[in-house]
Amino acid sequence: MGTDCHLLGTNVVGPWLFTDLLAPLLEKTAAQSPAGTVRVLWAGSFVVEAGSPTDGVQFENDAPKVFNFPARDYGQSKAANVLLAREFMQRHAGKNIISLAFNPGNLQTELQRHTPALITWVFNRIMLHPARFGAYTELWAGWSEDVKGMADGKVYAVPWGRNALPETRADIVKALEEGVVGKKLWDWCAGETKAFR
Fold first, then answer.
1. What pLDDT score was predicted for residue 3?
2. Whole-prediction pTM value?
3. Which of 65, 74, 174, 194 is catalytic?
4. Which of 47, 116, 132, 185 lies in disulfide reach of 75, CB 3.0 to 4.6 Å?
5. Non-local CB neighbours of 19 within 8 Å, separated by 6+ positions
């Protein structure tokens, strides 16, 4: 993976490899656990909707395209996690594991550290919430009884604990349902991490 793919490495390939290596233990644990209690959560963002390309991820030469535009590359990396959450669910169907992506919300965090002070000040006033709010979405995704009833993988958790998949961008929903982009992304991640197995 080239250095220009750093967002894909940090936000996608690393978590994918960690999850894939844990999969046998997750399956073993799930076989001995109450239904819906073993879950894998993948970090999304509002930029899945606002900044990712068509279908969430675009490919070029059998690898995710690098746009060299930070907002678009970041959006694609987060959409990739949404696609991988569904692909994981498909690959582990019948194993009693719930896999879903979540958007923690627009939060006042260190993500704004390189943003000009005036813009940060405005964002803090009109669209950013205290960082602790992000935990609400993750807690819902990880522990809510509501999610157990959505074990078919048709879940995208959004602030502050609800399923927004029915409201998600139509092209991303279509890509999730068809599974082609998710499978291609999964296979690419597997190829990129062969040396670490």
1. 38
2. 0.89
3. 74
4. 47
5. 40, 42, 88
